[in-house]
Gfo/Idh/MocA family protein
Amino acid sequence: MKQLGAAIIGCGSIYPLHAQSVSEMEDVSLRLLVDRDRKKAEAAAAEYGAEAADDYRDILTREDIGVVHLCTPHHEHAGLAVELLAAGKHVVTEKPIAESIEAGERMVQAAAGSTAQLGVVLQNRYNDSSQTIRRIIDSGELGRLIGMKGIVTWHRDEAYYARSDWRGQWATEGGGVLINQAIHTLDLLQWFGGLVESVRGSITTDVLEGVIEVEDTAHAHFRFTSGATAVLYATNAYAVNSPVELEIVFEQGTLYQRRDCLYLYRGGKETLLCEPPLAITGAKSYWGTSHRLMIRDFYTHIREGKKFWLDGAEGIQSLRLVKQIYESSRSARV
C-alpha cells in the first residue's frame, strides 16, 4: 500500500500527540515539521526522523505530502486551512476550528470547494465513555434524556499565559476557558443533546484579571429542541487539573462520569460501565489515547474515500455555542 505523506505545522505543546499518532501508522510517513521558530522545527524533526522547515508554503507544491496537521494558534487555523485545501491537501486541525465564527465558516466553505477533506480534533467523542453514552441515548434503553451536567475545574496560571503571547487575547485565542479547555465538554453536551434551542450564560475573570483579556470562569444553561436541558460550569481558577465530570439524567437511570470512569445508577444500584484504557506508561489518559483513535480514523476515511464525520460543519457547532455564551454574558451587562 502506498504511504500517505504527512506534515505538521506548529511544534508547540500539542504536536507530539499528532506526531506519535502518525508515526504509529505503517501506511503513513511523517515527512515535514514546520514552525516559525526554526530551532523548534529542527528539534521536532530530529525526534521523528523528518525534515524541518520554518515556512509552510513548500507544502503547497509537494506531491509527497497529502495530509497536513494544524497545531498552530487558533487565529492561524483559517488562513492555513483555506490555502492548503485549495492546494488539494487534506487538513486536520486542532480545536477549536478557529477563533471566530467568520473564520470557521471560511474553512467550511474552503473544504466544500476542495477535493480534500477537513477534520476537526474533538477527540473526546472517541472516548469509550462518550461512545457508550451516545449508544445509550440512541437506543432509548433508559428512556428519554432529561438533563445533563458538565463540570471542568482546571488550573492555568500567569506563567501558562506568559509562555505564549497569543493566549489570553480575544483577537488571537478567541476566548478563554470556554474556547480552549472546556470546548471538549461543551462539544459532548451538544453531541449528546442534539439541536440547541436556547443558550444563556455568563463569563468572569476571577483570578487572572489584569493578566488576560478573556475569561477564566464561565457557566451556561442550554435548552435543546427535544426538551432536555444542560448546565456547564468551567474554570481555570481551580488549584489543580481535576478530571472532567459528566452527569446524564434519563427517565429510567443516570450516567455519571467520575475520574474518567462511566457508571450507571439505576434502581438503587451503581454499575461500572467502562473505564479509560491504560497509556503505555501505565497512567490513565483521558485525551491522549483518543487523539490516536481520531487521527487514525481520519486517515482511514481518506484511504477509503469516505467523508469524515467530524468535519468543519460539525466542528463549528461547539464554537457557535461558545460565542453564544459570550454574547449572552455581554447582553446581560448592558
